[in-house]
Amino acid sequence: MRLLVLGGTRFLSRAVAERAVARGWDVTCACRGSSGPVPAGVTHLAWDRSLDAPPTMLEGEWDAVVDVARLPSHVRRAVVAVPDAHWVFVSTINVYADDASSTVEPITTDLAEDPEAYGPMKVACEQLVTGGARSSMIVRPGLIVGPGDESGRFSYWPDRLARGGEVLAPGSPDDVVQVIDVRDLASWLLDAGEARTTGVLDAVGSPLPLGELLTQVAAGVGSEATFTWVDSEFLTGQDVQPWAGEGSIPLWLPRPEHDAMMSHDAGPAIAVGLRLRPVAETARDTLGETAIGITARRESELLAAWHALEVAK
Question: Is 173 found in the same domain as 46?
Fold first, then answer.
């Protein structure tokens, strides 16, 4: 297999390239290389995607392409340059409208600085791939976690639970969440490229109640921490940020307005080969990596305020 990875230096695209090399494939990563080196065993094809594709890429005979781009102009140039390979385009569940029954309207211009444009630009990218490539598969991942995730969202929890003690658990233990390990996703993208799988598929983990997910994380890092469940209304009133970032409680989303984001069907992807590892394994393998969320001091303050509120009732 001759594989062209558009990217290859960070997280998912890097995991794809590494696993393709391990399979003995001939792998080329087309990227600037400014985010770091490409994996060992990979040919680096220097390409600034704001420019037309280099002649070496145009002349290549590629069996498959894996692309994770979000800017329509980048995808447009790549599809024009390599229309005959089988395309595996990595989109996002952010293309769905709030009720997850339809997609948002596409944005065909590059709005790199506007986070609200992420989903609409991915819709435009999907349309460019399906309209320009001879064959393609569109993959819409949910929250991707695992080794190499610089966002620190998931790895906040292995880090926190490994410290033990009383842990602030956000929302309800019954709130459903979905995560997919980057290694499982990368391997499946390669399988799909080799098999020339077509269609549009959500790449998500099995739906898990948050309480079960945190229990699995605790098992993965050997933690005996105890959970104190703090409701979303209280957290919102305390100006706690949801989902990700400094000062947030990662994986927490106010409900029910965000229920649809974490309730996608993994069945169709599993039916065509996606294999999912236990959350405990992902937790074990991400312990010690970047962990971003509320500080220990902030967590203690919130727990104290919550207990005081409960006593006052």
Answer: no
Q: What distance in Å separates the CA atoms of residue 233 and residue 117, rounded to the nearest whole number?
A: 28
**Which residues sit opposite 44 in a β-bridge?**
29
If asked whether residues 245 and 171 sit together in one domain, one would say yes
For 163, other C-beta atoms within 10 Å of its C-beta total: 12
In this model, does residue 257 exceed pLDDT 90? no
Domain-embedded: residue 236:
yes
Please report the beta strands in 128-230, taking only residues with DSSP state E, as ranges in sequence order.
Answer: 135-141, 143-145, 166-170, 176-177, 179-181, 199-203, 208-209, 226-230
Full residue range of the structural domain in which residue 236 is found? 156-178+208-262+277-307
Q: Which amino acid is at 95?
A: V
Domain boundary, last residue among 96, 115, 141 = 141
* Alpha-carbon separation of residue 60 from 45, 53, 227, 284 (angstroms): 11, 11, 55, 40
Task: State if pTM tops 0.90.
Answer: yes
Q: What is the pLDDT of residues 168-179, one digit of tens each?
A: 999 999 999 999
Q: Is 104 a member of any domain? A: yes
Spatial separation of the C-alpha atoms in residues 177 and 121, rounded to whole Å = 25
